[in-house]
Design goal:
By secondary structure, the chain is of the alpha+beta class. It has four domains: 153 residues, PH-domain like (Roll); 83 residues, no CATH class; 82 residues, no CATH class; 48 residues. It contains 16 helices and 20 strands.
């Protein structure tokens, strides 16, 4: 019963330095939302006296200071041990009370953003299933309070009620923490160079276009005579020779790769994996230090991503999708390990599933899938272009030919990589063109499985199968329908059997 003496069981406030943090946060919000209006106000109104500016700034600062103080004193948190809930009181005018059942807590993340480092305080975020945003954020905690609160909220109830099991947890935790796994800086840098360069290229191009657009709008607003003429820019750009254009594209790609490598290194710097009895703790970050938890029992899907270059470099990217974490809708909050080596990956998977999944059986899609995708991605677009503007086929026939060859090649590569692997305990979906994804999940943790077949697929005995998990659904098409029926029956049997046990 000594835990009852812990201050978490009585309403308490954040660290007092949180007042300064809240003030800075409020200043940031004002500057972020009103900077355009502030600049134009002073540019257009040249007759404003200096004393008016000083009084306005002082008045705004006083309002923000008072707001920060009130926010601090109205924010309280505590643990309701009787109802096993974590409770947050907050709000100045419109007050609110948030209650979270401890059993519903999905993740508790501790981070130390750059500003927090100056005050030696930490931010704690609590996440629950079914929410794309963090349910609760406590912005100013001491490290000890943050760690203690995190450990309590993530401790299983049955272990709390079993002293012997709790002692075992502490002993295992101490042994594990003596030998944490660190992803080397070289591997993180390798991953940064070999991943997301396509996204980085388009992001950089988009940034340039956005920059030109904003610059043009700004010149119009301040009534400069010099404005950007996009028709002139386009004509001058097309006047360059093909090698010059290719050179510019190559430079943009290289710059994008460098930017992505630096961004990845800053984000995942000093990535450390610490294994506990129930979970893994990930700690990383150069300026913004983060600490996230992967609960072993709540892992629904593990997605391993690796391209050809990464395979040669013996690195990959592993994402852990937990209950309520949809990969497509919640990408930012998905726990992941970049640049992990094959040996470290096997060690990680074995710790979660107590074995490294192996597969003796697999299904491949029928070649008709290539024909369907060819019609969808080549025939339909070209027919639409032909109906809208016939001259494009005549004037730019070489671009049409390049499009057909390139898209058909991508379709064929995607078809070759698409496979469904299965064993008694696991199912794995392989897909991708350059970055190959291996999504693996346990049969017993599936919510349900469905197979379907269109009427035109009956003669060819083809169909599709969809796996539903707590972390999303996964579908693969154009497979042997008779074999899908057998796989469906087996999956339903395993799901029902796990519920009965």
């Amino acid at each position: 019963m000594e835990e009852k003496l812990n201050s978490f069981f009585q309403p308490q406030r954040q660290s007092k330095t949180g007042i300064v943090l809240l003030f800075l946060y409020n200043v940031g919000l004002v500057v972020k939302n009103l900077w355009v209006f502030i600049i134009f106000y002073f540019v257009k109104n040249k007759d404003i006296e200096l004393w008016m500016i000083i009084i306005s700034v002082i008045a705004v600062l006083l309002i923000l200071i008072v707001s920060a103080i009130l926010q601090y004193y109205h924010f309280k948190y505590y643990i309701d041990d009787e109802n096993d809930e974590f409770v947050i009181h907050q709000g100045i005018i419109n007050t609110s009370v948030t209650k979270i059942k401890r059993e519903n807590i999905q993740e508790v993340n501790i981070s130390q953003p750059f500003v927090h480092r100056f005050f030696n305080i930490y931010k704690l975020e609590i996440d629950t299933p079914g929410s794309s945003e963090k349910e609760v954020k406590i912005s100013a905690l001491t490290k000890q309070n943050a760690v203690d609160l995190k450990e309590y909220l993530l401790t299983e109830k049955q272990i709390e009620n079993d002293p012997e099991q709790a002692d075992e947890l502490i002993e295992i935790k101490e042994n594990k923490e003596q030998h944490p796994v660190k992803i080397s800086t070289a591997n993180i840098l390798k991953y940064g160079v070999t991943a997301n360069y396509v996204q980085s290229f388009f992001a950089l191009v988009s940034l340039v276009i956005y920059g030109f657009s904003e610059l043009s709008n700004l010149l119009k607003k301040v009534e400069f005579k010099t404005q950007l003429d996009y028709d002139t820019v386009e004509s001058q750009f097309l006047a360059f020779s093909v090698p010059m254009i290719l050179g510019l594209v190559l430079i943009v790609i290289i710059v994008g790769i460098i930017i992505n490598a630096v961004r990845t290194l800053i984000k995942f710097f000093n990535f450390t994996i610490t294994e506990n009895r129930q979970s893994f703790s990930f700690e990383y970050g150069l300026f913004n230090t983060r600490n996230s938890i992967v609960n072993k029992s709540k892992v629904q899907v593990i997605n391993e991503t690796q391209n050809w270059i990464q395979k040669k470099l013996n690195i990959s990217y592993v994402k852990f999708l937990q209950i309520g974490k949809n990969e497509e809708q919640d990408e930012k909050n998905v726990a992941a390990v970049p640049g992990i080596s094959n040996s470290e990956k096997v060690q990680l998977l074995s710790a979660i599933w107590e074995e490294n999944p192996t597969f003796a059986n697999f299904l491949k899609p029928n070649f008709r899938l290539v024909l369907v995708n060819t019609f969808e991605w080549i025939c339909v677009p070209l027919i639409l272009v032909f109906l809208i503007e016939k001259d494009i086929f005549i004037n730019y026939w070489f671009l049409v030919l390049i499009y057909i060859v390139l898209v058909e090649l991508l379709i064929f590569i995607s078809f070759r990589n698409l496979k469904l692997f299965y064993s008694e305990r696991f199912i794995r979906l392989k897909s991708g063109i350059w970055d190959i994804n291996h999504k693996t999940f346990e049969v017993e943790k599936l919510q349900t499985v469905k197979i379907s077949q269109y009427f035109w697929q009956r003669k060819t005995n083809l169909g599709s199968i969809t796996f539903y998990t707590s972390a999303g659904r996964f579908k693969i098409v154009a497979l042997d329908f008779l074999k899908l029926k057998k796989l469906l029956n087996y999956c339903i049997y395993k799901i029902e059997n796990s519920k009965n046990n």
